[in-house]
Amino acid sequence: MGRHIPKKVLDQRGVNLHAGILLTTCLNITRIFLFRPCPPTRLLPAVVFNWYISFFVSISCHLIGYFLVCVNPGPNQKPPLSAPRQKASKEVCPRPLVRTPLDLKTPVRPLVSKPAVSQPESRLKTSGLSSSSVSAGCMTPGCFLQSLSGPGSSRNFKQTKEELTSKLYRLYNTSVFDSKLPSNMSVSWNNKMRKTAGYCITGQERGGGNRYARIQLSEKVCDSADRLRDTLVHEMCHAATWLINSVRDGHGPFWKLYARKATLAHPELPVVTRCHSYDINYKYQYQCSRCKNTLGRHSKSLDTQRFVCALCTGQLVLLTPAKPRAPTPFANFVKENYGSVRQNLAGQSHGEVMRKLSVDFATKTKLSQN
Question: Which residues are listed as membrane-spanning (predicted)?
């Protein structure tokens, strides 16, 4: 709502405005008639004189109009920039209908000191786990994680790693993640990961569809059963933060919560940490002949004639040369009989000769076994 302006003030404003407009118009008309173009003979003095007079008349018109309209606003009118003062509100807050007696006192509850419990601990206690279970040992039925720490657990690991991965995933999903992870999550092996033990890939289908996660394990780093056991639970914690909590926080609070829960559920596990400290078993080792720095490679791909040590530019020497393999019995048989069979099958191709040798070697092996 605007402020009410008296009619007298409005009339005075109108008079001032009309007077200013009328005076400005008259002076401009006078300037037009007085300062008409002059003959060419008197052009320069007339132009200078007309310019000074026009400038003076224009300034006078604007000053007079501004004074009449803005500076002298009229009686009982406040400057336009001054904001109206607001009167203090005299309203009184209503009192409650029922008053509380002064002698009525609420009973004071006795203070009971509770031990401080961290946030992860409180969440874990709601799921039936406590810190006392760490010292009590693993209570999960069918748990076989302790047996994977022995030296013989990595025997025939390459042949049994797929089956062991499936068993570990089912065990962790039941005991740590309450079967909330999908039973058919993709867990694959990657032979291109040379230093990273595992990696969890998370995403969501287009259009806000279902969330998904898949885990990749390194064949070159996870080369034993105990490393597979520890790496898989680490990556499953990443998958749980996304699939269960819809959060991608890296190694943040949610990941630490599941890592702590895994340690409490399986005390025989080492503490789930952010990064691994595994000594990667390289098949080939190179050493600098000058500074004795060693380099590891999974394949014999480093050309020592082209590349030098990055620290001192010394010559690199291969420490673990390829072991010479003993020839197989079939190779010895071919070496002894290839010439004679080749003569008997004159004009035949090399493939036909090798087929004949294979048949003869199989016949000889059966006779020796009988």
Answer: 15-34, 46-69
